[in-house]
Amino acid sequence: MILNPDHVTIAVADAGPAIEFFALLGFRKAHVATIDGGVPARYMGIPRMKAQHITLALEGAYHFEIQLLQFDPPPGTDPGAHPTNLRKRGFNHLAFRVDDIEAATAYLVANGVTVLSDEMDYISRKLRLFEGPEGITVELVQRDD
Fold it and tell me: Which of 4, 85, 88, 126 is the most exposed place for a label (fewest CB within 10 A)?
């Protein structure tokens, strides 16, 4: 079912130092988007979310991304209503690439895994969030390429 790790998302207070650090490891800025509510914010369970979403891609044969979220304003002490608390700084979620997101979703649901979002189309990929063990958010990604 899983093809490979796709990306990890990290919420940061200041994206600049994180971009510089990951550049040392071979990651280059691939995409920058501003999230100001809308579908991406609802997908993450934070309807009024405002953030910069910066995708850093690992150069080389194996495609892997680090996606930085710089919230505006930075999150305070409000833990939010989302069960896995995607508002806090640090680790946000781990994503795995699949070849058939509908089949993978059906398999996980049949095995008691909680779905946290509707499917979303975003940057040439289908995405869906799930509640993993210990409150970890796991995302499945089906790329169009």
Answer: 4
Helix (H, G, I), strand (E, B) or coil at 51: strand
Whole-number Å distance between alpha carbons of 125 and 65: 14
pLDDT tens column, 48-59: 889 999 999 987
- The sign of the dihedral angle between the CA atoms of 85, 87, 92, 98 is positive
C-beta neighbour count of 108 within 10 angstroms: 18
| Residue 68 DSSP SS3 | strand
6-34: pLDDT as tens digits: 899 888 888 898 898 788 768 899 999 99
pLDDT digits (tens, 9 = 90+) for 71-117: 887 666 555 545 455 667 777 788 888 999 999 999 999 999 999 99
**Which phi and psi (to 5°) does residue 22 adopt?**
-70, -20
In terms of phi and psi (left: phi > 0; alpha: psi -120 to 50; beta: otherwise), the region of 90 is: left
Interatomic CA distance for residues 68 and 55, integer angstroms: 6
